[in-house]
Design a protein that fits this description.
Blueprint (H helix, E strand, L loop, with lengths): L2 H4 L2 H7 L8 H16 L6 H7 L8 H9 L5 H15 L7 E11 L9 E4 L9 E15 L6 E11 L7 H15 L5 E5 L15 E6 L6 E2 L18 E3 L1 H5 L5 E7 L2 E13 L1 H4 L3 E8 L10 E5 L6 H9 L3 H13 L9 H26 L4 H5 L13 H20 L6 H16 L4
Length: about 450
């Protein structure tokens, strides 16, 4: 059984767009492992991917392990090529890119796992948000698809961060932003992150990049630098001290504004100020947006956003920041439906490649579904179950299940399209039922 015969033609058409990142033998292994990760319903370890591809009896398991630990391919180049595919097939020509930056912990045990430490885990349950594992800083592109009311975040870069390492999370994020910007220099790049991402590393980003984040409560703002006086000496770099966002809230005028957030059209109260965040972004002019909720959410704390985007309307900036939450959904779905982080590699190359590979499989699945898999009746088919009567659009679980079924169908028909054997029919029926049971929607 050869990999080409087990990979559906529609999926291979997507993977062919990434062929330039690999040698010919490595690309063959890549297509098989992508197919195996998607088709596998059990653990997505490295050998689990091989089993999912149906090649456990044909290939030595070292071939799969070698792909991650020794083969000549770069996950960052693969991600950049994937970002160009997204821009070409899912976005309008010349449309700006909206990127989201965040980090997440993939839990690992074992003393010899490279990069595994006890560290903060934002997804941990319980009063102590810590865990032992490998932390990755991830950059994803936010994309709106015509058949979804919500946006999706598609990972295109991921770098391992180690406590006490040479670079901080913010420095890793800034490096990835600059790399993505250089590869899409003709497009505007709007980057969104949470309050943990700020500091000197984000100074002097490329001219086509804007950065939006939540303003820390302790951040001190200053007025714009006054005009030069013509007197001897260095001119002032900043104006008078304005104070924190909470202190400024009582001095600014709030006005109603419309914002689309969390699939709802809402009215919020906005106050805006142009100033300097001298401690973080130095002398770069920024906009600070103070957001107060209205209606039943009126009691929520004040939201303070800071952005280097000086032209986009305030309501759209609030909506852009709210869409940052989609990266958290991506992390959860990649773990649950694709087994991201389950690969048990211990070496440096293995650890640094398996997680980006799994996240890229998430992106590949969405691209495949948008180009080849979507059908208007997909959501209606799921509504046949009594607990999905309100379902109006496909979830990522539906996308992965449909691709998994396509892989299973291609594998059965590859042997003899005219006359499948009774065992093959029972196998595909069993796999189909398992795929459905594995995707609760």
């Amino acid at each position: 059984m050869l990999p080409a015969s087990t990979v559906p033609g529609s999926l291979l058409a997507v993977l062919e767009k990434l062929k330039g990142c690999f040698t010919t033998p490595t690309f063959t292994t890549f297509t098989a492992l992508v197919t195996g990760m998607i088709a596998q319903t059990g653990r997505r370890t490295v050998t689990g991917m091989l089993t999912g591809a149906g090649l456990e009896r044909w290939w030595p398991h070292d071939r799969a392990h070698s792909f991650f630990s020794r083969a000549a391919w770069d996950p960052e180049i693969l991600g950049i090529v994937l970002s160009h595919v997204i821009a070409r097939v899912l976005l309008d020509d010349g449309a700006p890119l909206v990127a989201v930056v965040d980090d997440t912990l993939f839990k690992r045990c074992g003393k010899k796992v490279f990069g595994a430490f006890w560290q903060h885990d934002g997804a941990a349950r319980g009063p102590r948000p810590i865990g032992r594992g490998c932390c990755f800083v991830v950059l994803g592109l936010r994309v709106r698809l015509p058949f979804l009311a919500r946006s999706v975040c598609l990972p295109v870069m991921a770098r391992l961060w180690r406590p006490g390492g040479e670079k901080s999370k913010v420095e890793l994020a800034a490096s990835m932003i600059r790399m993505l910007s250089a590869c899409h220099g003709h497009r505007k790049l709007h980057v969104v992150a949470d309050a943990a991402y700020h500091g000197r590393a984000l100074r002097h980003l490329p001219a086509n990049v804007t950065f939006t984040t939540r303003l820390p409560a302790s951040a001190v703002l200053y007025g714009l630098a006054p005009p030069k006086t013509g007197r001897p000496g260095r001119p002032r770099l900043k104006g008078d001290r304005l104070g924190t966002a909470a202190g400024l809230a009582g001095q600014l005028t709030f006005r109603p504004a419309e914002a689309d957030r969390y699939r709802r059209h809402e009215t919020v109260l906005l106050a805006e100020l142009r100033c300097l965040w001298y401690g973080s972004l130095h002398t770069q002019t920024v906009r600070v947006l103070l957001v107060r909720e209205t209606g039943k959410n009126a009691g929520k704390p004040l939201l303070a956003l800071v952005t280097t985007d000086l032209t986009t309307p305030a309501g759209q900036l609030v909506a852009r920041y709210a869409d940052r939450w989609q990266v958290e959904c991506t992390f959860a779905e990649a773990r649950e439906h694709l087994g991201a982080g389950q690969a048990q590699s211990r070496t440096r190359h293995g650890v640094e490649r398996t997680v980006p590979f799994a996240l890229y499989c998430y992106t590949i699945t969405v691209i495949w579904y948008a180009l080849h898999g979507h059908h208007p009746n997909d959501a209606a088919d799921r509504r046949r179950s009594p607990w999905y009567v309100t379902k109006t659009e496909p979830s990522f679980a539906d996308m992965a299940a449909k691709l998994r079924r396509t892989v299973i169908a291609a594998r059965i028909s590859a042997a003899d399209p005219a006359q499948p054997t009774p065992d093959e029919i029972r196998a595909v029926q069993h796999a189909w039922a398992t795929a459905s049971a594995d995707t609760p929607g």
